[in-house]
C-alpha cells in the first residue's frame, strides 16, 4: 500500500482462490495462523495445506465448548489467591493450550480495545469476569459486547464511573464510549459527551455489582448525536452504535489488527467491511471471516506488514513448537516487553505497530526467546528440543532444522546469506539441544523475526 | 598382578618398619593415614551397616510404594545410573551392597587438606587383597570402555616408592596398606605415602584437634566429621560466615548467638545418626561464655543463663517454638549489631511503629515491657463450621510474659483497638471486609478479638484470604497472647493459666514441627497447589495432580522434626531430629 | 580510563570477525545512519529525583535565626551550632552534608518556597498535580505528564526517550500519548542475555549488512532499531563492565540508582530524562532519626552523582532536579513528627546551575492555615527546565505561559 495505485475494494475483499501465481502453500498457511492465532505447528501447517484456506478459516472461527468448564474451574482455583498477576499467568497458560487460538487472540484484541487495568481495579475476580465477557462475545456480537461492557464492574471502576449522579454526571465513561469504544475521535461533540453522560446517570456499582439507581437518573430529554429523547436504560448505546462512524471505526481497527499496521486504509477499502458489520447487526465473527479469507489478506499488502506483539513473539514461538512452559514467568516477561496482560498502560490499550519496538524491548524480546528456549521447564510436546526436532519434525541436519524453523516463524523470505549463517550456527560442534537452542535464539534476535 | 606382588612384598616390610616406631602396627582408621594438616574430615565407620539400614529402612519401603517414585526410577537418568552400576557389578562379580561391605569394611573417610588444597578419599577394607583387586578390576573396566568407544587410554600408571599410582584425569589412586586412597593433588598423595612408609611425623589421629573433635562428636554416629574453623578463618574462607554479624534483624534474632560462637570457636563437629526410627544431626562447637559480648547478651541472657520456656502444645499443632531472646535489648543494641543502612531502616520502622503505639518509644517502652521468654505456635485451622476461605492458612500466635503487667496491659489493649480501627478504615477504602471487635473478661483473663464480617451474599465456601484471620490478644495473669485467630487465642489463654507444662532440659531455643499437620494443611489447599503447579511448570492438570500427590505422600514418611540449640557447659550444640512415621497398619487410614 | 564503546567500535568488531560479508565496501543505509549519529550528541539530560511522602523543607533548609522556628518545634528544631551554613541565617540540616558540599562547589541551586496556589494535602492528588500540571482532576480525562508531553516531541533514534529506574509503578509525569518510557530495575534489561559466547551478537551483526535497503519500510525500520538496540546494549555493557569511577557512591537504593544513571549517560544512551524516587518522607511521628537518614541518603547520592558525572566529562549537560509533592506543617505534632504541609524548597544540582538561594524566603509569620505560603509556582521551575535546559517551548507542555527563573548558567 505504499504505492500510489489504489487497491480495488472489490478485489480486496473477494475470497482468495489458490492459483499458480499465488498457491495455497505452507507459507500462506503459516501467515494465516500467525495472524489469526499466534502460530501453528508443523503438523497443523501440513493439515491446513491439505484442506484449503476457506475451510481452515471456518474451523478457526468455530467455537469449541469442551474446554470451557475446565478453564473456568482452573481460573477459580487461581482466583482464590486474589492476585491479578496470577490471573495473567492463567491467561498465558490458556493461550498456550487452547484449541481455539483465534478466540484467544480476539479476546486479547478486545482487551486492548476496552482497556481496563488491574493496576486500578485490583480485584482479580472483577478482571476475570470482564475477561470472560470479552471471550464470550469475541467472535460474536459487538453490540452485545458494548452493552455488557457498559455494565461491567471492572470497566466502571477503571473509568471512575462507579457512581454517576444526576447533579454531576460522570463524563469520563460517556467520552470513552464514543471516543475509544464506538466512534473514534472527531465523530462527536463536547455537547454530545455531556448529554450522553446524562443518559448514564444512576448507573452505578453497589457491592461490586452493577445497579441502576433510579433516584439518581436524569429522566429528562437529552440530545445525543442529533437525536432527542429520554433514552431510557441502554437505548442510547444502540443509538451510538447506529452512527455511520461506528462500523467504520470498528472495521478499521479490525483491518489494522489483522491485515497491516500501516498505512491507514482508505475509506473505500474499509467501507465493504463496515457495511457487512452494519448489515449483519454487528456480527464480528463474520467480518473477521471475510477479512481472513480475502485476497487482500493473502497478498503482499498484508504479508510481513505487521510488527509482531510480544504475545505473538513468545506465545507464537511456543505454540509453533508445541511447547509448554512456566506460564507465570512468561506473563511477567510480557509485562517487561510492554504487553502486560490485564495491565494495559492506559485507556487506549496498546497502540501496537512500531510502538512495540525500541532498544529495550528489542533486547527484551531476544532475551525472552533465549530464556524460553533454554528453560528446563519448557517442554516440547513433553520432551526436549532434540527429541522434538528429530521425532516430530523429522529434522536432523542443520539445513533441515533451519528450513523448518524459518518456515514456521518467518514471514519475510529467507535470504541465502541468512540461511547459510543459521545453518552454520546449527552445525557447530556441541550437544544437540544447545545447538538447536542457539539457532532459535539467533532467530529470535533477527529483525525478520519481529515482523509477522 | 604386579600390584599385588609389590604390595605383598612391601607389606611385611612396612609392618616391620612401622613396628619399630612409636606408631601402631597397622593403621586402624583413616585418621592414621592422614596428615594433621587436614582442615575438614568426615568418616563413616561402618558403611556396610549403613547401606543395610538404608536399603531395608521402613521409610524406603514406604517411598518405593509410591507411584511417583516408581516413575522416577524409570527416568532416563536413573536407568543410565543403573546400567553403569550393573556393568561394575558384572566386572567385580558381586552385587553392589556386597562390594561395599567387603571393600569398605573398615570405613570410608573424606578429608580436605589445607596446604595442598586437595581432597582425599580413604576406603579401608579388612585386608589388602580386596582393594587391590577392586582397583585392578576398575582399571580394566575403564580401559575396556575407552577402547570400545575409540577413546585414548584413560589411565596412566606411575611408580612412587614402590607403590603403583593410577592416574585417571585429575584423580590419583593407590592402595596403601588395607586402604584405597584417592586424591586430586599429587603432593598430598605423596605426603600421605611418605608418612606411612617412613612411619614418621604425626598422623591426624594424634593431633590435638582431631582428638578433641572425636571426643566432642556424639557416639555412636553413622557419620561424623569436623571442620577446623580456626584454619578456615585464617585462610579467609567464607568471611561472612565467620564475621560474627548478621546483616538483617531477622537473621540476627534467629542465629545471632551462633554467629558469635562461629567467629571464635576452633572447631565444629557434626554427627549424623540414622536409625529405623529417626535421623539425627548434631553440630557442636566449643563455646566460651566470655566470647559473648554485650551486644549479644540479649541472646543468651545474663551470664548465659537464659533458658527457653516450655513448649506450648495446641490442637492440630504444626509448629511450636520456644526461645530466650531479650528483644528490647536487641533493639537498643541495633547500632552495634547492624550496619548503617539497616539502622536507617530500623529508624524509619520505629518512626512508623511509634505512630501505632501512640508515640511510645518502640525499643525501650514497648519491647521493654515484654520478657525474654518467648513462645510461638502455628496450628492448622479447620473450617468445619462457619465461613471457609478459598485458601486455608494456619493460625499463629505468640505468647510472652509481661513485665509490670498491670500498667502495661491497658496500653496494649488500647494499641490493639487502634490497630483494628486503623485496619478497618484502610480496609474500607480498599473494599476489604470489616473487623468486628469483641471482648471477654473473667477473673484473671481477658480476651479481645476482632472477627471479619462476611458480606451479604458472599460465597461462604470461598471467602477472601482475610477470613483466615481474626486478630486477637489475650491476657492471662502476667501473660500476653497475640494471635492471628480468636480460637487459638482462646485456647492459649486457657492453656497458660494451667500449671504443669513439661519442663525441657535447658535449651536456648527449641522448635518442634509436626509433619502430619503440615501434610494436612497442604492437603487442605490441594486445589491451589495443583493450579500453581500447572502455571509454573506448564503441566496438564493430570500431571500436576500427580506431582502434588507424590509430594504429599512423601511427607507421610516423617512424623515430626525438631531443632534445638543448647549452650552446654562448654560446647554449644545445635541438634536436628527427624522422627519417621511408624509403618501404617494397612487397615487404618 | 573508561573505554567507551561507540557505534564505530561495535561495527568494526562484528564486521571484522564475521565470515560472510556479501557487500564488500558498500555500507547499507541502516549502518550509514548509525555511523552518522555519534552517541553523546551533546544533548542535555534531566535527572529527576522524586522525594515521595512530603519532605520537611523547614528542617532541610533551616532558618536558624528565626525564633519562631524553635518555638514551633520544641523537640524537632535542630540546634543552631549543628547546622551547615548556607547564608542569611539559613543552614542545612547536619545530615545533609552532601547538599552542603554541592552548594560550596556552586553546584546547587535552592529554589525556596516552591508550591502552587490552593495547596492540596493529599499525597496522590498533590503528586498528580506536580506530575501533570493539571489543577483539577476532571479538567482533562486523558492524563499525560509534563515529561511525557515533552518526550512526545523528541526523538532519540531508537533509544528510549526517557528511563524510569524503579520497580514501583511508573510516575504519571512520564505518561505520554505516543512515547513509551520503560521502567527498568537494573541494567540487565539492556543486556543481550544468554549469549556468553557472543554467538548471537556476532551472528546478527554480520547479517545486518546484508539486507537490501529501502525495499521494505517496516523491515528496515526494525533493522535500524535492532542495530540501535544492539549498539545500545554493547555500550551499556561496556560501561557496566569498564565503568570506573573514583567516586564512592553510598550503598543504598538511591545511590545505586544514580550510579546506574551515570553509567547509562556515559554509555552514550540518548535518553533525555531519567527518573528515580526516594520514598519515606511522610514522617508523621518520631521524625528526627528517619528524616536525618533520608537527607543523608539524598545528599550523599546527589553529590556523588554530580561529581561522577563531572569526572566523566558530562557535567555540562546533566541537570538534577529534586522535588517533593509538598512540605510539612510548621508546627510539630504530638508524636514528635509533622503533618502534611504546603510549600517546600526544590533543589537543582549540576555544573551549570547558578548556585545558592533563589526565590523569596518563606515567612514564618505569614502562614496560611499553619502552612508556609508558596513563593514560586512549581510550573515556573518546569518552564525553566523546559526552555532553558531541554530547549523546547514550555507553553505546549504546561498549557500556559510561565516565566522561567534565572537559575541556570550559559544557557541557550
- Strand count of chain C: 12
- Can you tell me the residue ranges of chain A where pLDDT is under 50 for at least 5 consecutive residues? none
Q: Which structural class fits the helix and strand makeup of chain C?
A: alpha/beta
Overall number of domains of chain C: 1
Fill in the CATH topology of chain C.
Alkaline Phosphatase, subunit A
Regions with little confidence, pLDDT below 50 for 5+ residues of chain C: 1-39
Described by the principal axes of the CA atoms, the overall outline of chain A is globular
The total of helices of chain C stands at: 12
Strand order of the largest sheet of chain A: 1-2
- The assigned CATH architecture of chain C is 3-Layer(aba) Sandwich
Q: Roughly how many Å apart are the termini of chain C?
A: 32 Å
Number of E strands of chain A: 6
Mean pLDDT of chain A: 90
**For the record, what CATH class of chain C applies?**
Alpha Beta
Distance between the termini of chain A: 17 Å
Account of the 3D structure:
The complex is a heterotrimer of chains A (452), B (589) and C (412). Among the domains of chain A are: 142-243, no CATH class; 310-450, no CATH class. Chain A has helices spanning 9-13, 26-37, 42-51, 53-61, 66-79, 84-97, 101-113, 118-121, 124-137, 142-150, 153-158, 171-182, 190-199, 235-241, 245-258, 267-279, 284-293, 310-320, 327-336, 359-374, 385-392, 398-409, 416-427, 432-445, 447-450; strands at 203-206, 209-212, 222-224, 227-229, 323-324, 379-380. Chain A has a two-stranded antiparallel ribbon. Chain A has a two-stranded antiparallel ribbon with strand order 3-4. Chain A is 58% helix and 4% strand. Among the domains of chain B are: 2-37 and 106-206, no CATH class; 309-503, no CATH class. Chain C is globular and about 75 Å long. In chain C, the strands form two sheets. In chain C, strands 1, 5, 6, 7, 8, 9, 10, 11 and 12 form a nine-stranded mixed beta sheet that branches. Classes of the chains: A mainly alpha (452), B alpha+beta (589), C alpha/beta (412). Chains A and C meet through α12, α20, α23, α24 and α25 of A and α7 and α8 of C.
Keywords:
heterotrimer; B: about 600 residues; alpha+beta; 20-stranded antiparallel sheet; about 25% strand; C: about 400 residues; alpha/beta; Alkaline Phosphatase, subunit A; nine-stranded mixed sheet; three-stranded antiparallel sheet; 12 helices; globular; disordered N terminus
